[in-house]
Write a structure and sequence with these properties.
The chain is an alpha/beta fold. The protein is built from ten helices and five strands. Strands 2-1-3-4-5 form a five-stranded parallel β-sheet, with helices on both faces. Helix 7 crosses helix 10. The protein starts with 7 loop residues before the first strand and ends in an 8-residue tail after the last helix.
């Protein structure tokens, strides 16, 4: 993570040279961002990240040699301080769920505005997840399914280590509520919601909101709606 006086560094990984150049030009307009390298496939992205140590890797999901999901998993394992922001041509892309599960800090479709892209890079660099809650739940409800329950198994979504209120917060996260909406729904303060969210992450053993939502669907805490 950068300091307030140090530009954050970005590595762009996309198999289309014109896309890479266009993305680099977008960041060139922001003095707070420096593009330190470009990769044409996932394997090159991993190799360059090892040597350049960027703050953020902008990762196309579908690339040759090593796709963005596998590259994200490798970076999460080897360089946990490096944040991955996944990109896809399609809003509804099962590969995106794979990247989020592998540790990507966020996802954006490629048709976002330059302003949204730059803001998302700053967001993930700050340690937050960059994905619209409603889009996240649409993605995950479409491509993540819970296992078939076994006889005498625990009730869906049951986590003995979570308090009732933490389970409530987890459920609302999985339904696409942001922290402000959770606070309003449960009639608690925003800071209390943040504390509960942090506790949920720790008890579930997940890095961020995206992985928490995936866990909610995998455990059948919530069910797909589309």
């Amino acid at each position: 993570m950068t300091t307030p006086h140090t530009p954050l560094t970005v590595l762009i990984a996309d198999d289309q040279p014109l896309v890479r150049r266009g993305l680099a030009l977008i960041f060139h307009a922001d003095p707070g961002v420096t593009v330190v390298g470009e990769a044409g496939d996932g394997q090159e992205a991993v190799e360059l990240a090892r040597s350049l140590r960027p703050d953020v890797v902008l990762m196309d999901i579908r690339m040759p040699r090593l796709d963005g999901v596998a590259a994200t998993a490798a970076l999460t394992e080897e360089l946990p301080e490096c944040r991955v922001l996944a990109l896809s041509t399609f809003d509804m892309d099962e590969y995106v769920v794979g990247a989020l599960r592998a540790g990507a800090a966020g996802f954006l479709p490629k048709d976002v505005s330059p302003e949204e892209l730059v803001a998302a890079v700053h967001t993930v660099n700050a340690g937050e997840a960059a994905v619209a809650p409603r889009l996240l739940t649409r993605l995950i409800s479409a491509f993540v399914t819970a296992p078939t329950p076994r006889p005498h198994s625990a009730p869906p979504g049951t986590r003995p280590d979570l308090t009732t209120r933490e389970t409530d917060v987890w459920t609302l996260m999985a339904k696409g509520y942001d922290n402000t909406e959770i606070a309003e729904a449960l009639e608690i303060s925003h800071s209390t919601v943040k504390n509960h969210v942090t506790a949920v992450f720790a008890k579930l053993g997940v890095r961020d909101r995206a992985q928490a939502v995936i866990a909610a669907y995998e455990s059948a805490l919530v069910k797909p709606t589309i």
